[in-house]
Amino acid sequence: MSGWFRRLRRRPDPPAPALWAEVRRRAAWVGRLDAARDARLQSLAAHFLHDKTITPVAGLELDETRRALLAALCCLPLLEFGAEGLHGWRQLIVYPDAFRVNRSHVDAAGVLHEWEDELIGEAWESGPLILSWADVESDLAEPDGGFCVAVHEMAHKLDALDGVLDGTPALPRDWQRRWARDFQRAFDGFVARLERDEATALDPYAGEAPEEFFAVCSEYHFSAPALLARELPAVADHLQRFYGHSPFADRALPR
Ligand SMILES: [Zn+2]
136: CA distance to ligand 1 center in Å? Predict the structure, then answer.
């Protein structure tokens, strides 16, 4: 029965033109897309708004424009990958600001460690995607600053689609092999620099784990692609193929 209803259901309507114009005005990554990719993003965002429950918490209010902005930013990494990138989860939870989570871990000696982390975003493998609205807004205010928390968390979602969160998304086999080799080499080099206490142009958080490396580099692809290409050319090439041209691809490095 539900399958029958699903077949009859129409494709979700694209966002209203005035609403989308506002999204393009507020989000430079969207405003800089050419007409074909903009149309693709509109259809992905409509899909997102139709399929996902967006839940503001802790007193946050999300009007139609904010919801459309969130949908657009979360769908940016899907411009080439497509709507299959939305599979496997249903809810976007949005906090007003950075949020605290309780962590625990039992070590090898059986001792329970508990601590609190302050996060601006989190993506569970098949659970909700969680964002801090204040951080989304600061990304929007400085779209070429190297940060985009929505893209970061969506990169984790894409990474997890094949069942393993390891910094390598589901790709055709040959490409996946080259991706894994190039990313591993770049990650090892990055970690070695951190261990030598060298300053890095990219956020040192990328050195936490291979999956964080992929997610952080994804943020640079969209917001500071020239910097990424200078620091990690092989990684930048893979991401350009995976995500398509960066909206800031024409932006040279400041001298
Ligand atoms: Zn992360």
Answer: 15
Helix H, strand E, coil C: the string for 196-243 is CCCCCCCCHHHHCCHHHHHHHHHHHHHHCHHHHHHHCHHHHHHHHHHH
pLDDT the model gives residue 53: 97
Residue 124 has pLDDT above 80, yes or no: no
> Residues within 5 Å of ion ligand 1 by Cβ?
212, 215
Q: How far apart are CA 202 and CA 166, in angstroms?
A: 20
pLDDT of residue 251: 79
What's the CA-to-centroid distance between 107 and ligand 1, angstroms? Answer: 22
Note whether residue 38 is domain-resident. yes
Strand partners, 106: 112
Which band of pLDDT confidence, cut at 50, 70 and 90, is reported for residue 12? Answer: confident
Query: Quick check: is 235 in a domain?
Result: yes
- Mean pLDDT rounded to a whole number for the chain: 92
Interval between CA 131 and ligand 1 midpoint (Å): 11
Tell the residue number behind the tokens 């086999």, with chain if given: 173
Instruction: Give me ligand 1 centre to Cα 211, in Å.
Output: 7
In a domain, 252, yes or no: no
Is position 254 within any domain? Answer: no
Domain total of the chain: 1
Range of the domain at 224: 2-243
For ligand 1, the distance from its centroid to the CA atom of residue 117, given in whole angstroms, is: 13
pTM, entire model: 0.91
CA of 61 from ligand 1 middle (Å) equals 25
CATH code, domain carrying 27: 1.10.472.150
